[in-house]
Amino acid sequence: MKKVRNKYKLYKSFSTTLTFALSVYAALMILNLIGSMAYFAGTVDNNITDNKSAVGFILAFIYLIVLTPCSYLCWFRPLYKAFR
Predict the structure, then answer these.
(1) What domain range includes position 55?
(2) What are the two backbone dihedrals, phi and then psi, of residue 44, each rounded to the nearest 5 degrees?
(3) Smallest Cα–Cα separation from 63: which of 38, 21, 35?
(4) pTM of the model
(5) How many domains is the chain built from?
(6) Which site in 4, 5, 14, 65 is 20 to 30 Å from 83, CA atoms measured?
(7) Nearest-CA neighbor of 36 among 49, 20, 21, 23?
């Protein structure tokens, strides 16, 4: 009985840590998008934009839209199921 409780306690703490890590990752991706948007808006001068800032903004948007769900599917979900 004691082993079952310890296993459940370990599983609960591990799943909580994984959820926190995924939340931090998603927050960093949002912060990346906001920072690149600010950089893109700051480089606009008389309707001439810097190509690097535009590419950075587009990549930040793609990273947020594509990589956040992929990180859930590829590492969070399998680890969550493995410790279940």
Answers:
(1) 2-82
(2) -75, 120
(3) 35
(4) 0.74
(5) 1
(6) 65
(7) 49
